[in-house]
Amino acid sequence: MRPPGRWARDRDGSLVRRWNLRQRITALVATAVAVLLVIAVLAAAAAAVSRSRMDTLAEINPIRIDAERLLAVVIDQETAIRGYALNQQEASLAPYSDGVAREREIIAEMRRRLPGDRGTQDRLRMVEGLTSQWRAQVAEPTISAVRAGAAGAEQVPGTTAARQLFDEVRAAIVALQDYLAGLRGDLAGQATRASNLVVALLVAAAAVVLAAGATLMVLLRRMVIAPVTALAGQVRSVAGGEYQREIRLDASPELAALAADVDAMRRKIAADLADVQAARGLIEDANRRLEEQTAELTRSNRDLEQFAYVASHDLQEPLRKVASFCQLLKRRYAGQLDERADQYINFAVDGAQRMQRLINDLLAFSRIGRVTTGFTEVDLDRLMSDTVAGLDTQRERTGAEITWSDLPVVRGEEALLSTLLANLVGNSLKFRRPGVPPRVRVFAQRIGGEWEFTCQDNGIGIEPEFAEKVFVIFQRLHSKDAYPGTGIGLAIAKRIVEYHGGRIWVDPEYAEGAAIHFTLPAALIDATAPAGSAKETVA
Q1: Domain around 76
Q2: How far is CA 58 from CA 30, 64, 159, 193, 403, in A?
């Protein structure tokens, strides 16, 4: 299997191997590094040669000075021997003895400075051999002849053989000096050439770096900047609305793959856009149907309002007449007719009164949230006191005990919240256990971003399977003979709680009676108002 990004089709359709951008940059950098390493090695070698030659030059100058001193010392020895031969005084030999010692010291120092130069060492040996020969053939015989008092001793240093031998000594020292001068010139030339080579190699290294940089710039311009610019132009065209334009790029494998990914993204966006346009059509159609339904709902609400008006005026008026005349018939003719007639009259009076209560409850249910006085700050602790005061008759008749605590100040409609508390507490008093005085407790606690209120009692309770059913309008779990009422109280309570942005439910785990919870959002509560009193109120 061919490696991805390394093969492409040529203009004639044949597969050709193409280097990607990473491979090209890697090859360029590797070549430049290899050339720079070769240059560095050559430069290091040239620098080492130059440093070696400079070190040798540093030793040659002192050797040249030593050669001049050596010539002077040898001349002093020859002069001392001539003087001693003429005046035959031992004091004249002092320069000779000192010169011999100085000569050995100078030659030893010269050998130490250039131990590896055979030319210098050979010439030093020649000078040393000639000076030893001159001392053996001229100086020492002269000293011995003078000390022995031999005739003609003063003539020995001046003989032709003595002069020729000393001239050979002097010529050997001069040859040594000339050799050192030539060696110095050669070393200086080598050091100069090595330094020039180092400079040339540094210039070559700089040229390689510049060439590599220029090549890299051209490579990046041709393989990155130009293709990316072309890709950006195509992307701008697509962004301008040409969603069906195919994005293609003839570039390095990496950028070609990037262009393919961008084109895949374009195709996906185009497909999603088509889906969005189709969905927009569906949404517009749904909105049109929703507007029609809203208009129909508006007409239905107007009809309901008209029905409420009719129910509150046109229906209640004849119903009141029926109830009034039935009650009048009961008062005037009770006991004058037979027992069955009295029963029928009682049925008619009770049915008319019950119908009137149903109509009033239905009107109250329909007005919640539609007829509003606006939200105000409501002290539920005070409202609870007023609610309990309104239930005094029922509370005294049943021997009930009602307690409440931790009721906060909230924002809402006071009349609706009063109805809510009255319905909850009234239900607790109504659905009591036979022979057991009702015990009702109302309290609140802050949970997260809302207040949760609880109304607990010790009554007959609510079975878990009826926990949702009790909030349905006109839904009764017991017969009206056992527990009077229209069955709309908890439905009204739910409507009021939801109108205030809360929720209401029955606690199925409370086994001592019934426990109903409802919430009010904390956003509806004034943060500066007191959260209620921790003192429990008993009524």
Answers
A1: 21-230
A2: 41, 11, 42, 17, 115
